[in-house]
Amino acid sequence: MSKKASRLNRHLYGNNKARNASSRKHQSTSIIQSAQSCGFRQSPNCREIDLHDLGLHEAKERIKTESVKASKESESVLFIHGYNKGTAIRDFIRGGPLQQSLEAKGVGGELYSKGEGSTYFDPSTRGD
User: Fold this and answer.
1) What global pTM score does this model have?
2) Fewest Cβ atoms closer than 10 Å to its Cβ: which of 15, 92, 98, 123?
3) Which residues contact 126 (CB under 8 A, 6 or more apart)?
């Protein structure tokens, strides 16, 4: 590592040599459970929302709208977001921003992964 890069690293991350920039990349802020491992069963009236054809901004708005609607109707939602052509939508759902947005609106519930490409939102299981 060059002297300049070393100084920049020290400025950004402090003097702790055990940690460097690469150890901070791709850290998820929240860990969601696998639907299968925790015994989650979708409700009979579970809605599937396909987000593949939406841009990130459109997908975020649709996810928030559908989550609030699902909470009011007490039904689970399966968001099909994919992962092969990017993970921005999946990271929005699983990484924490969705949960923060819903909590700000007074909506509670749990998120469960269904493989890499889809995630359940279940408002009937409250995290309180």
Assistant:
1) 0.69
2) 15
3) 108, 109, 110
